[in-house]
């Protein structure tokens, strides 16, 4: 699904904006050594930042889950995000990444050492040309095994090995199961499928983030009289689907075109939901 963030970057740290990727952590920084770092991602395009407030609320909540003491409010992060976006040309497609991390502590972070940074960088929205996936041999952890309710950096090495395994097999990403063997999501996006005009998605059960874009797509589907069913999904039933797609902040709504050795069309309901999302975002 491509690399992200290779263009221009502006970063806010210590009440200043820097036109690059400033060096802010050392080897003794708790966020580096012991992984007390959380982040979120929002998208700016066409002069809008969909669900920005929800993303800013979530990064604050993620920091609290990991034992930090976030010192900024949702509205302050929202205002800083717009400040960063204003540093780019008006037609830019951007990724907005607020982050909290702890500077000190041993094992548990020292809440008083919590720091904040915000990066805004060029990241064009990928075209909905389709991606491929295979079943991962790795699984998502349960809520009592890891901080799964947080968008925590410490969860992403597991995501990375799912992606690496899939790439080695010739696929773009992976379908990842939960601890009891049901489908959780794609490696880093939520999963939906279409069958007989109905929209299905795994029930949020604490093993994966109930994504902000996921929630928005479900709401738009319901508002447009599309039947949405959240349930336990087995891997095998994906092969009976008419369409499969992912939702996530990076590409918003993206179609799957190959699962293992089976191909899928870029379906009409997938593209209708994508259009509904971008139409809503522009309002």
Q: Any overview of this molecule?
A:
The structure is a single chain. The chain has 283 residues and is α+β, with helices and mostly antiparallel strands. It is built from 6 helices and 17 strands. Strands 9, 10, 11, 12, 13, 14, 15, 16 and 17 form a 9-stranded mixed beta sheet that branches. Strands 1, 2, 3, 4, 5 and 8 form a 6-stranded antiparallel beta sheet that branches. The chain has a two-stranded antiparallel ribbon with strand order 6-7. Helix 5 (212-223) links the parallel strand 13 and strand 14. Helix 2 packs across helix 3 (74-85) and helix 5 packs across helix 6 (268-281). The protein is globular, with a radius of gyration of 19 Å. The model has no long low-confidence stretch (mean pLDDT 96).
Q: Tags for this entry?
A:
alpha+beta; six-stranded antiparallel beta sheet; 6 helices; 17 strands
What's the short story on this structure?
The chain is of the alpha+beta class and 283 residues long.
Name the poorly predicted regions. Answer: none
Mean pLDDT: 96
Beta strand count: 17
Proportion of residues in β-strands: 25-35%
- Count of alpha and pi helical runs: 6
- Could you estimate the helical fraction of the residues in percent? 10-25%
């Amino acid at each position: 699904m491509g690399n992200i963030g290779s263009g221009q970057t502006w970063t806010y740290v210590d009440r200043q904006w820097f036109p690059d990727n400033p060096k802010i952590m050392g080897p003794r920084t708790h966020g580096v050594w012991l992984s007390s770092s959380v982040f979120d991602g929002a998208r700016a395009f066409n002069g809008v930042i969909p669900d920005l407030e929800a993303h800013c609320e979530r990064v604050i909540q993620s920091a609290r889950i990991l034992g930090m003491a976030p010192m900024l409010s949702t509205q302050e992060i929202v205002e800083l995000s717009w400040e960063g976006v204003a540093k780019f040309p008006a037609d830019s497609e951007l990724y907005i990444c607020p982050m909290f991390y702890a500077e000190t502590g041993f094992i548990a972070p020292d809440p008083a050492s919590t720091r904040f940074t915000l990066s805004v960088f060029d990241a064009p929205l990928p075209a909905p040309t389709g991606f491929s996936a295979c079943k991962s041999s790795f699984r998502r952890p349960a809520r009592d095994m890891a901080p799964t309710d947080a968008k925590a950096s410490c969860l992403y090495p597991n995501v990375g090995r799912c992606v690496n395994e899939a790439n080695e097999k010739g696929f773009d990403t992976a379908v990842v199961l939960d601890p009891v063997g049901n489908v959780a999501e794609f490696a880093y996006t939520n999963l939906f499928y279409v069958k007989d005009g109905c929209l299905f998605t795994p029930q949020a059960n604490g093993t994966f983030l109930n994504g902000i874009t996921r929630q928005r797509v479900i709401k738009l589907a319901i508002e447009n009289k599309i039947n949405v069913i959240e349930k336990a999904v087995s891997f095998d039933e994906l092969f009976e689907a008419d369409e499969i797609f992912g939702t996530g902040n990076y590409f918003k709504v993206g179609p799957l075109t190959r699962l293992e050795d089976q191909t899928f069309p870029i379906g009409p309901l997938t593209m209708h939901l994508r259009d509904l999302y971008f139409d809503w975002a522009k309002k």
